[in-house]
Structure formats: structure tokens, C-alpha cells
Write a structure and sequence with these properties.
This protein has 207 residues and is an alpha/beta fold. It contains 7 helices and 6 strands, in the order ββαααβαβαβαβα. Helices cover 31% and strands 14% of the residues. The protein has a 6-stranded mixed sheet. The radius of gyration is 27 Å and the shape is elongated.
Length: 207
């Protein structure tokens, strides 16, 4: 599967052969949805909590006599029906995450990359190295790609310092090391820009 390699001025500088098993895989919407649920659940803090009867302040002594008052019998002033009492069946600290096996994660990532590739929203860039760290220079170049939001995936060797400085002030774009690629980011961003030298790293990881 051949794709054009572009530079940051949106001009073709060559071609690259993409592995069809990674970038030409079939769409698996159910698995993509499951992976995004897995990511969202894992990022939940789970620290919501209300006080139980053992935790609210108050006396455990009977508030009034068992009989003769005309009131319903009570053992303390901590139950939920008392003002300042405990919360019945309220939330407690918990871990919302669940497991997703390695094969499912890999297939979901492959499917997400293939979806972007089939939509022509996967752009291979020869290099993210730029000479100027000025935001306006990079911004004028990126406007040529007509994106709404963009994710720039760089290689394990690191991101060019000038590109990092120049892109930090441009809205609606993010940078990500290829080791951190995930389904949520691939689906959330309009266009995905991948540095050419990180393609082999991604293929090796997902093969």
C-alpha cells in the first residue's frame, strides 16, 4: 500500500510502502468503542464518597425511649432519616477500570489507524524538524493542510525542539510520542500527522 510522503509545506517529497495489515485493516467499531470505554474508565478518579453510619458524627445512644413517646423506635441519631445522618447506599471509593487483553488493544489500534488511512486523514510527514521556533511560521505552513484538529506523532528519538516550541501556542493541535498512540486520540483528532521515521516503530509494535 503506497502513500505519499509530504513535507510541512504540504508538498510531495516521495512515497512510502505502508503495511496493509496495519494501515489497511478492516473497521471494527465495536472494538474501537470498547477500547475508548477502557481508556475513559481507567482515567476516572473514583474518589466520590459519602459518609456511612459509622463515619458521621453523633451519638450512638438512643435519642428517646423505646415506648411511650409516640415516635417510631430509633437506636441512634445517625440513620439516613435523621438530619445530619448518614447517606443510604451512597457512593464509595472504587476503581472503575476493567481489563482489556493485549490482542483486543492491538486490533483496536490497527483498526483506528486503518480508518484514518481510508478517510485520507492519515498524513505521513518526512520530518518535523524546522529551522524557526516562531509560532507564526509553523502556523502558516500548517494552514495548508486544512485541518480542524491535528495530532502530530513523532518518533522515539524525540520531537524537534523548534517544532515543540512553535506548536505549543497553536490551538487544537497536540504532539504525542509513537509509544503513546491510543484509540481515543486517533479517533478524536481530525487529522493525524505521523513522522516518517516513526512508521517502522509503529509497525514493529503492532505486528
Amino acid at each position: 500500500m503506497k502513500r505519499k510522503v509530504l513535507n510541512l509545506k504540504n508538498k510531495s517529497v516521495g512515497d512510502i510502502d505502508l503495511d496493509s495489515n496495519i494501515f489497511g485493516f478492516r473497521k471494527l467499531p465495536d472494538l474501537i468503542h470498547q477500547y475508548i470505554r477502557f481508556q475513559n474508565a481507567k482515567s476516572r478518579q473514583g474518589s466520590h464518597k459519602t459518609k456511612t453510619r459509622s463515619e458521621v458524627s453523633g451519638r450512638s445512644k438512643k435519642p428517646f425511649s423505646q415506648k411511650g413517646t409516640g415516635n417510631a423506635r430509633q437506636g441512634s441519631n445517625k440513620p439516613p432519616n435523621f438530619r445530619g445522618g448518614a447517606v443510604s447506599m451512597g457512593p464509595v471509593n472504587r476503581d472503575h477500570s476493567f481489563n482489556l487483553n493485549k490482542k483486543e488493544k492491538k486490533l483496536a489500534l490497527v483498526s483506528a489507524l486503518s480508518v484514518k488511512n481510508s478517510q485520507d486523514k492519515l498524513i505521513i510527514i518526512d520530518s518535523f524538524e524546522i529551522q524557526s521556533f516562531k509560532t507564526k511560521d509553523l502556523y502558516s505552513d500548517l494552514k495548508l493542510f486544512e485541518y480542524e484538529t491535528a495530532l502530530f506523532i513523532y518518533s522515539e528519538q524525540g520531537l524537534n525542539k523548534n517544532f515543540k516550541l512553535a506548536s505549543s501556542n497553536i490551538p487544537k493541535i497536540s504532539t504525542l510520542n509513537q509509544k503513546g498512540i491510543n484509540v481515543k486520540d486517533l479517533i478524536s483528532y481530525d487529522k493525524i500527522f505521523i513522522e516518517q521515521k516513526s512508521i517502522n516503530e509503529i509497525v514493529k509494535r503492532l505486528s
